[in-house]
Design goal:
It contains 1 helix and 6 strands; from the N terminus they run E-E-E-E-E-E-H. It is an alpha+beta fold. A 4-stranded antiparallel β-sheet has the order 3-2-5-6, covered by helices on one side. A two-stranded antiparallel ribbon has the order 1-4. The N and C termini lie far apart (37 Å).
Amino acid sequence: MVSGSGWSPGTEMVAWIFSTPQKIGTIPVSDDGEYSTEMNLPEALDIGEHTIQVNGITSDGSIRSLSVEVLYLGDTGKAQDDETNGQLWMSLNFWIFIICALVAITSLWWLFGRRKSESQ
C-alpha cells in the first residue's frame, strides 16, 4: 500500500521501475491532494538491482520525483518453501514501505516549507 498527501488534486502520479524502464502504473490523486493505492512489480522483471521512481505534481505545481533502490530476488516459478516465500514477501513489503515513507517525508517537507514561507 502506498499513500500520502501534498500532491496536486485531480492529477496522476506515475510509477516506474528502472534498469529496463517499465511503467508500473499510475496513482490517482484525489480532490484533497491525497493518494492511496497498491502496485505490483512486472512479471518479467529481471533479478537484480533496480530503481523505483514515482513522479507527480505537488499542490504548488512543482514537478517532484522520488526514487528508491531495490534488490529484486525474483520468482523462479518453482515451488519454494514457506521461509523463502516469507523472505521475498518481507523484502517487497520493506521497499514498498520505504517508498511510502519517502513520499510522506517529502510531502511533509513541502507542506511545512510552504507554511513557513507563507507566515513570513
